[in-house]
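Entry for the shared binder. Reason: the reviewer on the internal report wants the predicted structure included alongside the sequence.
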Amino acid sequence: MDFLGTLKREFSFVRGNYAVLLTSWIIVDFASELPAAYFSLYVLGLGATETILGVVGLSQFLALASLQFPGGYLADKYGRKWLISTMTFGVALSFILYAIAPSWPVVLIGVVLMSIFNSVYQPALTAMVSDSLPPERRGMGFSITMLISSASTTPSPVVAALLRARFGLIDGMRIAYGIVVVLFLFAAFFRFFFLKETIVNASKPSLKEILQSYPTALRKSVSVWKELPRSLVYLFLSFSVMIIGFSSTFLLTAVYATKVLLIDEVVWALVVAAIPVTTIILAIPVGKLVDKIKRKIPILASILMFGLSMWLFVYGDLERVIASLILLGTGQVMLMASFQALQTDLTPKEQRGKVSGFINFVTFIIMAAGSFVGGYLYEHVSPQAPFLIATATVLPAFALTLLLVREPERREE
């Protein structure tokens, strides 16, 4: 009975909007990861080259960046719920183009549309999660988010491998994207009916207001940084440095593993499951750790893990690749739980949408450039080049965090 009581107290904050979002993430994360292991190979199979794959990444992240500013501004001014629910419908419908694409340009159009819809509602989603978590449970809350998403995505590579083995790469991916459309539509309806608005007096803007909001949103999203602690600026700079390197490998891991390291395509999908399995095992312990110690310590540890992971991968065999992905999963859990918790600690509630929008915008611009450069370097210089660049960015990111990031004496509510 004492155990049940302790368990109930530990997870008493999992209710309301936070519980609704966790439930919907189970659905959308399974759907998103189902075709993810083979996305790059699918695009290559539709006639693309590695450089074109870089262009797809460039387009995806530019589209993701495009509406982050108005997304954050609208989330703070008009509310979170309507953005989250309506844009989820848009994401669902955009995946139809992935499924029916006769060639890579049609996939590119689907990628851009999906990314635009995501761009609008991501700041609202981040802000709603932050609004729903008490300060003393933020590390645990963000870790549970990763735990739920990893638990739901763990079967995805297995299903993807079965589809690949039974129907081949192209037809298997078309079936996978059909499943994605259905599941995203279900999640959109679920969010529409069960989420509750967290902004008082929130109202729905007109399309004209949304378009007119961009200059104001841009100005306010930039100017808000004058009011924020310097540590948040340095934290974001450190994160950006790492993104510069790792974005260059984003769409190339499957290509490198199957074409250079010669790992079988079906086996590759199963190997990728090491990341969510690692997250499932570590999410709760890491979340509790982040709430008990300084947030900066797990951030520093995760940066080093990312560097070691890339080094093992680029010079790997099957065993080293598995070890690399386990390290990558561990680093992701530690970084996301501690980074998001510290970002929330440093950001007032009424500014979180704008701050998330700005961070997402800059991050996606960096990832857009990194994806293109990575694809070009892979095809025209060396397949190893993007991964070595990712390894090299670890040292400056570590130094920035260690020397300049300070945790607040009082965490924002």
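Summary line for the report: The radius of gyration is 20 Å.
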